[in-house]
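Let us walk through a complete example step by step. Step one is to write down the protein sequence. Step two is to encode the small molecule, zinc ion, as a SMILES string so that its atoms and bonds are unambiguous. Step three, shown after the inputs, is the structure prediction itself.
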Amino acid sequence: MQYIDLHTHRPAGDPEVFEIESVFYDKVASGKTPFFSAGLHPWHLQNIDLKEAELWLREQVAQDGCLAVGETGLDKAAAAPWDRQISAFQICHRVAAETGKPLIIHCVRAYGEVVQLLNRPMSPALTTPPAIFHGFNKHQQTARMLLDAGYFLSFGPALLLANSPAAGAFRTIPAAQLFLETDDHNLDIKAVYARAAEIRGWTLDQLLEQIHVNFREVFGMVPA
Ligand SMILES: [Zn+2]
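Step three: the predicted structure of the complex.
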């Protein structure tokens, strides 16, 4: 059973790992994995034309290997103006809803605002896509708010730090709502799985199976 790395900027090309490479606007995937997500990230919104960015996004999601829209979201520490961040996020949300792809969300100090935007009604023909908050490293209270609303949380290298908020939250979150990732770290996803299994008191096989179940639920497909 393959390890699933939900979100990476540095795919390893390891055949034992199913990797989703996160591709920023106007960039191309490394080619080390056939699977990617494409999105408009709040860090990369300056000096871009959002209409062109939307066209780029629609071209990306039309490709076979594009499994999700993102990362995208809101970031109170980013330089881009707030209304621009909201516009970019709404473009991604709409494209995800129209194409039935899940959203991978980058969120910094804006959980309430992101949830509010996700809840904003779109046209009646569209249903809001599943959303995964990636790189989660917040305490139980934020986790609870997102989990109760039905969102998924993806945990990364922060799990390896003793006493990180991520490690605390990961211990108790519902098994059906978790994913694992390496993000932009130069770290083997297998180390994240080993630590995650230890925190939960599960075997590695139990953890792999659970992540596969969750993946099928959200993406409607299963890795080998
Ligand atoms: Zn990322």
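Step four is interpretation. The two ends are 7 Å apart (CA to CA).
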